[in-house]
Amino acid sequence: MAYPIDVTFKSISLTLTANYASTWKMWEGVRELVQNWHDGVYQTADKLDFPVSSDPVVQFSEPKQANFCDIYEAYAEHPKDGKRHQLGLLCYDRVNSRLQMVNRHIALHKRILLMGYSNKANKKETIGQFGEGLKVGALALVREGRLVTMETNKDRWRFDLQEDPNFQEKVLAVYVTGRTGPNQNHPLSNFELDAADTCTTVHLKEEEWKQCVDKFLFLKPPVNCVKTELGTLLLDPVNSGQLYVKGVWVSDLTEEDLSSGVDFISLQIDRDRNAVPKPSEIDHLVSCMWIKVLEKDPSKAQQYYHLLKDDKHRDVRHACQYTSSNVALLMANLFSLEYGEEAFPVSNQATEEELDMIKKELQRKVVLCNQTLLDILYKSGQHMSVVDALAVHRAASRTIIPFSTLSTEHRQVLQHAVCLAQMAEPTLSLACISVVDHPENVLEPCKSHGSFIDVPRWFLDLETTHHVCRLCSSQVTKCMCREVHLCHNFLQLRRDMISKPVQNIQAFQSYLPYRMDHPLMFVLTQVSQEVCEQAKSSSKFCQEIHNTSAMPSDQTAQQSHKICEERESFLQQEISKLEQQIAEISDQHRVEYTKLQQELQTFQQHQMSDEIQRVNIEQQLKADYEKKLKGKIQQLEEQIKRAEDHNLEMARNMNFEKQQREKSDNKLQELHQAMDMKEQTLFEEVLHWIEEHNNRTRSLQEIFKENLEGANSHEKVKFETLCQLCDTLMEDLQVQRFVCSICKIKKKDCAFQPCGHYQACAACADHILTTTRVCPVCNRHLTNVMKIYE
């Protein structure tokens, strides 16, 4: 829309071409203007005379309906008296289709039209940051043919497009004129503008404003929401997937799997209010915000639990990273309510073999879960991973097999394995090794607890060992696979090479440092076998083992008893070590406890000293305050006494003046009465003289008529002239201006309304008004009578 340029205007070119920010439309323009109004409200709040300890809290009222207008008020209440201070108004006029934004006590200067200039306070509540929103927003609106004006300071600005002769290009311009009046174009009585206020006006259709107002949370606050340190989580369905920053809509992330709406307090955005951070950063912020919401309002746990189960929403992509133990416990309780106490959560990526193992060993109901929910359930402490659950179950179901009940072959396998391991680890002995049995024959690895090693029974079975890793040729009738395999496990456990248990054969093989086809393992097997074959004649490696196998049963029992004694001795040593460690820890704790007691005593002394100092300061302040208060009270009493004396003197003066006024009123009344009597006397005297003049005139007329009969023509003319003069004199006496034209007796003092004829006295005027109600002069209908005082 082009407006004719008034020659009286002062035009200011802003060097913004008409196509600058071409993607900006109506919404972007309105967003920037409303955003500037919002920031101006906080700028006005900073000017309020509030106590230093309490900053003004800006509030926005619900829209009020008045004269077909929706009026939003921004205000702040004083913390002491609760007085409401208006900071600004935002009004949409549905009749004139215009949006008006008023900022109280803010007068703008022309320098804000410079690109990049901004006088906004650096506060967390302010939205704008680039100093160009007003200009670019006005350009977007003007480009669509909308009228944008501002009344500020002493000027009125109108934004429009004009061709700049310096650049030969159409640019945004501001036409500056004088402000025509404080209330022009603002007919509402509650919408007045002072000279120090600023009003921005833009023309919008009603349906356009309805689309825009929903995108400002400070104008249309959400119902179902929870505020946190990071921002506000919006749980209303209408806000689902919507991203806001400081109450202003930024983008719709519904198609990007954002379930809830979010209003961030701080988020890096560009000039077009597009989110600059990577999507993962937004995911982290939303995930952290949800946890803070649940800690603040646990009633939202059910909704969050459904988001976790779905596993497609961005709200929970990093949930486990921010979940606290309390929130995890809430999720675990909801999981148990849904699936029961016997439910066992398992990853939905688990294999059928793992699921069968859980059902067979744990005999629990398997529930497939996504990894996020699974990690949170583990974090609660009420559920554990498959590996841990199997380890606990198997540890509870294991039984230790006495060494004496093992077969001779199995005892020799263990002895051979220990002898092999002692070559690299001399401290290893058969006394620290226990053979355990699992009722379900699960292929578990060797495990260590402290200095002891538990060897599952399957390690002693040749067929099972060959199934796991065959280290010998299939034609060999006697091999050392079991011994080498056990030796390898012993050494690895001693060196903490195995960090966690495994639950199946394939996983167990993955922990072997050497694969079963590794040449070194084959070499070790062959060497061990050859040495063992020569043990009877020359080798000291396992000669004792073979000699023990040839002993009678009573000697074998003695040998087993000897092993038990060694085991008991080893246990005693372990107990001594543990007791020594406990003593060291106890001594360490005692030292720390003594240190803490000393620190506590020092802290108590400091606290006592601070308390004494605080009491002294409090007493000093109390004494000073009482002294000042007494002085103030004395001053107030003196002021009150002076005020009372002054009031008493004023009362005396008023009484005296009242008496003088009454005397004056009495004298004035007497004077009025004397004046009325004098006026009546003069009036009667005038009437008397009028009557005398009338009589004399009539006498003269009669004389003239008598003399006229015998007079000549010349005298006749003279007498006729005198008669005419007498008639004129009679008429003048009858139409005297102070005599009532109706009764011809009393003084006229009333004028008829609405014609205004001043012709009657009070009595005649009242009679006409009650009877004919018609003016005797112009015959016009009368409404009332006005008293005239001359």
TrEMBL record:
Keywords: Coiled coil, Metal-binding, Zinc, Zinc-finger. Residues 561-588, 622-681 form a coiled coil. It comes from the Eukaryota. It holds the Pfam family zf-C3HC4_3. InterPro entries: Znf_RING (IPR001841), Znf_RING/FYVE/PHD (IPR013083). GO terms for molecular function: zinc ion binding. Residues 740-779 form the RING-type domain. This is Uncharacterized protein LOC106157030. The gene is LOC106157030.
